[in-house]
Specification:
It is a single chain. The chain is α+β, with helices and mostly antiparallel strands. The protein has one domain. The chain is 41% helix and 13% strand. The protein has helices spanning 8-20, 68-92, 104-109, 112-117, 135-145; strands at 39-41, 48-53, 64-67, 100-102, 129-131. A three-stranded antiparallel beta sheet has the order 1-2-3. The longest helix has 25 residues, at 68-92. It is globular and about 60 Å long.
């Protein structure tokens, strides 16, 4: 059986849009007062969820949903990344970054504006987020060629 998932940059885009549209509050909780037919409580576990696609709109014939637990998992990952950036800044004695460089597959697909909406990076202008491509490959090449 093949598992199908939403990629990391897709999840960030989704959460940024859910936040911008008011489905998710700043705290990360669903807005229980929203008037949206896609927001519901799961009948099996009574937990809130948001339907991204109904079963008849998918190739797997199942609803695709985002749960409150999914949101909390993304908040944990985002918090760890942000905290790591802040700790490095503190260790280097830097209050504000000049640039944020992103790399790898994530880098090629992440929407910089939505990443800033989600607070993924320390505060900076969108023009200061720079894609550097395959940094791991470049680093390995540099190490191999270093005599």
């Amino acid at each position: 059986m093949q598992t199908k998932v939403i990629c990391g940059s897709g999840i960030l885009d989704l959460f940024a849009e859910l936040y911008r549209s008011g489905v998710i509050l700043k705290s990360g909780r669903f807005d229980s007062n929203q008037q949206n037919s896609r927001f519901r409580k799961n009948s099996d576990n009574n937990q809130p969820e948001f339907v991204i696609a109904w079963a008849n709109e998918t190739t797997i014939d199942k609803n695709i949903v985002i749960t409150q637990k999914d949101i909390r998992q993304i908040q944990l990952a985002k918090g760890a990344l942000y905290c790591g950036c802040k700790l490095m800044m503190r260790r280097m004695g830097v209050d504000k970054v000049e640039k944020v460089k992103t790399a790898g597959v994530f880098d090629t697909h992440v929407n910089r504006k939505k990443a800033l909406i989600m607070g993924l990076f320390p505060d900076c202008g969108i023009e200061k987020i720079i894609s550097i491509g395959n940094a791991a490959g470049d680093g390995a090449r540099a190490a191999l060629l270093n005599r």
